[in-house]
Amino acid sequence: MSHELCIPQSSIKPPDSILGLSRLIEQDPRSEKINAGVGVFRDESGKTYTPQSILLAWEKLEFGKVDYLSPSGKREFLGDEVFLNETVGLALGMQGNNLLNQGRISAIGTVGGTGAIATFADVIKQLSPGSSILIGNPSWPNHFQIAQSRQLEIIKYDQSTENNTFNFEGALEAIKKSPEKTIVLFHAGESHNPSGVNPSADEWKELARGMSGRFAFFDAPYLGLSSNIFQDSMAMKIFLEENVPIAVAVSYAKNCGLYNERPGALIIPASTNTKATEMQRLLNWCARSSYSSPPAHGEKLVTTMLEDLTLKNLWLSDLEKAVVILNKRRKIFAENVPQFDFVAKQHGLFSLLPLNDEAVLRLRRKYAVYIPNGGRINIGGVTSEQMALFAKAIKEVLLQSPKLW
Description:
Layout: H1 20-27, E1 34-35, H2 52-60, H3 81-101, E2 105-111, H4 112-127, E3 132-137, H5 141-149, E4 153-158, H6 168-177, E5 183-187, H7 201-209, E6 215-220, H8 229-232, H9 234-241, E7 246-251, E8 263-269, H10 273-288, H11 296-306, H12 309-336, E9 350-352, H13 357-367, E10 369-370, E11 376-378, H14 384-400
Parallel strand pairs: 1-10, 3-4, 3-5, 5-6, 6-7
Antiparallel strand pairs: 2-8, 7-8, 9-11
Helix pairs in contact: 2-11, 2-12, 3-9, 4-5, 4-10, 7-9, 12-14, 13-14
């Protein structure tokens, strides 16, 4: 008698549309293949980018304790306290530091940014099962997957216009029409995955003022890789100034090149220190029943860099150079594919091209160019030297069949 777990047809899942590309690329024997799919930032030599500041922090880091990171200190933060304090300061600026001093912050270390988002969804499931979450479409696919797995009711609006700009009117209308207590998900800063477009400072203010009775959840995986840390964290500060309740999921995977170390954090400000303590214990409880304790080595690497002023300033300089590289690649692409010149006006790692699945397949088969279905391209994964070839392949596919886009 078999005791194998049988998966019903309704529960069978396809391979991940983005991570599955890595397997296809591994199997492709062509040497000239280009990976513009998986969201990794590569330097101009094609290697996964790790800032010099992090490499130096790695040299300074001692082996240290190997105990679990557990809730500790007066605030009962789960994770390295310095790491979490520094993360609050990066994401929320002086307002965050003031909230820390007042005991009005709850924070936990998480298994990357994904773990922060999943833990927040677990919190919402505990506090208000079946809540609505408003997400601009398209978005990072895992936003929808995590929400669905926690039985949150997903409401969508169009993230961008036909002119490839942020759909401000549509976003504001969707917020105002959403039920009270709706969770509104935003991508922090000017960057957006996958569209590459996000609100301006003035638009952030208007959106914050339209949030009455709703809760803002910011996904911040690219701080410093759109403009700079200050600009990329501006939206959260604006929402705090407008007294909008917020939570922030932070990842250091891309801006520190620590993808497999998984340093991340979830930050939730509170109106009183009593409420912060109550939320902290709920966060710790949710983490305990999921991953129990955050990955310490990644947190220690980031902490070593952030609490050393010389290394921190070097990191900020590293990020400025990375933004220059990303903008250079965008310019090369736009010059070679004038049909898609909007790419040069966008920010961050990603842009969304209006390519259908047949075009994506043709790029893969004929040109060894890998992007996921839907047309998202990762500017960060294509070196400046490769970019002209990448753009040429897309241009030739468009010429072969204009109906492909």
